[in-house]
Structures are given as structure tokens and as C-alpha cells.
Specification:
189 residues, alpha+beta, Multidrug-efflux Transporter Regulator, Chain: A, Domain 2, 2 domains, 5-stranded mixed beta sheet, 3-stranded antiparallel beta sheet, 43% helix, 17% strand
Length: 189
């Protein structure tokens, strides 16, 4: 490829929507490599046919899709993008629900003039349920009870620290065993 056909990093940044700093960072982490790097100056140059992929990266980062998920999408076909965005949307909706619960808690604290909720006499419970499909179970409970699924702990939280009761419902990938047992724990608040 002739150097005259290549774009310098500034021109490519304008065409792609990615900042110069982002292009440098994506090169450093191996997400998006320039077509050529001058061995003497280190200047990066990009080909016109790289613009589409750079715009895809820009759009996916604009909706806060994690870089590692973008890396997987770039290695695969374009058909992987819609399902990945669906999954990301579900995570964002869960975050919105969780933040909404926090806003309610803040409003209650403001209304009551207290920074700490009253201590509850009810003990919290953590329930672990064996299921063959954690995602399907999480989807069912979040839709049925309008609760938030926390992927970090594979659990949903029912109630909150300042409600009359609080429960954590967790799943493990294993066939269900009966009877399911709720056990009080000190891990829940």
C-alpha cells in the first residue's frame, strides 16, 4: 500500500470519530492496529478501509460496551453485534433498576432526615437454588418480580438495607435439589 493512500492519525480520528488518544490506546492494547507505523518516528497511519471498523468501535464504546467484548466482536462476524448489544442492554437496564433503588433510598433518607435506617429485627436470608440455566432463572425472576440481577454475585436482591426485610437469591449451575432451604446469614445486610 502506498503511503500516499494512508491517513495520518489526525485525519483518521476525524473520519472515525475516535480521538487520537483512543486510537493510540487501542493500538497499545492490540484492539485496533494502524495499517502502518513509521519505524523511525512512531507515527501511525491508517487505511481508508479501516474507517468502518473504527466507527463500529466508536459506537460500541459510546454505549459503554467493555473493550474485551468489543475485541471478541471484532474477531467474529458482524452478526454477533446485535446479540451482544441485547445482552449489554439487559445489563444497562439492571443498572438503571439498581440506581433507581438507590435514589428511592436517598429520597427516604432525605425525607426522614436520617442518614442511617432503623435497625431491623428481621434477619436477612440468603437462598441458594440449584438450576441448570442461571441466565434463564435470572431472567425469570427479574421479569416476574421486577428485581435486579447482580451478575457480579449471580444473585438478585429482594428488599434493601432500609426495608422491612432483605433477601439475596443466588443460583448455582447444578440440578435442583429439594427441598430448597433458606438459611439466615450474616453476609446479607
Amino acid at each position: 500500500m502506498d503511503d500516499k493512500e494512508l491517513l495520518n492519525i489526525g485525519a483518521f480520528a476525524l473520519l472515525s470519530g475516535l480521538s487520537i488518544a483512543a486510537l493510540r490506546h487501542y493500538d497499545e492494547i492490540g484492539l485496533f492496529k494502524p495499517a502502518r507505523v513509521d519505524p523511525d518516528s512512531g507515527y501511525r497511519q491508517y487505511a481508508h478501509d479501516q474507517v468502518e471498523q473504527a466507527r463500529l468501535i466508536c459506537g460500541l464504546r459510546a454505549v459503554d460496551l467493555p473493550i474485551e467484548e468489543i475485541r471478541v466482536l471484532l474477531a467474529g462476524s458482524r452478526e454477533l453485534v446485535p446479540p451482544a448489544l441485547d445482552a449489554h442492554r439487559e445489563r444497562l437496564v439492571a443498572q438503571v433498576r439498581e440506581l433507581s433503588q438507590r435514589v428511592v433510598a436517598v429520597d427516604e433518607f432525605i425525607e426522614k432526615g436520617e442518614l442511617m435506617p432503623e435497625l431491623q429485627t428481621v434477619r436477612p436470608a440468603q437462598i441458594r437454588i440449584g438450576v441448570t440455566d442461571v441466565r434463564a432463572a435470572a431472567s425469570f425472576y427479574t421479569k416476574a418480580f421486577d428485581v435486579v440481577f447482580n451478575e457480579a454475585i449471580d444473585s438478585i436482591i429482594v428488599g434493601n438495607d432500609h426495608s422491612a426485610w432483605f433477601c439475596s437469591l443466588s443460583w448455582v449451575n447444578q440440578p435442583p435439589t429439594w427441598p430448597a432451604v433458606a438459611t439466615p446469614t450474616s453476609d446479607c445486610r
